[in-house]
Amino acid sequence: MPTTSKGKAKLGAPFRDYMVRRLRKDPRLAPGYLSGTWEEGVGPFLVALKDVVDAQGGVTRLARKTGLHRVSLHTLLSARGNPRLDNLSRILSALNVRLTLIPKAAPRRKKKAG
Q: 2 vs 54, which has greater pLDDT?
């Protein structure tokens, strides 16, 4: 367990560190993690994508696999990033994750009184 400079135990690890460790141990968790954060918005999704990248070897390794510049990847994978669709596709492919689109649940129709 990590300790402070005075030898006292720290209370838990930050969530991000925990997730990166879990994703490193079991890469199959990545699609579910990314899907869940997608529902929260683009910023949380990109932060989660960075977690997956870090768990799978980091930005430098991803740059080699995608052909994208390392500095550009750091920008794309920030909460304020705005990757183009082709770059996002290259990143997901390098991480062995497939983007799947499904319809939202259809709203219920009201029954006609009759």
A: 54
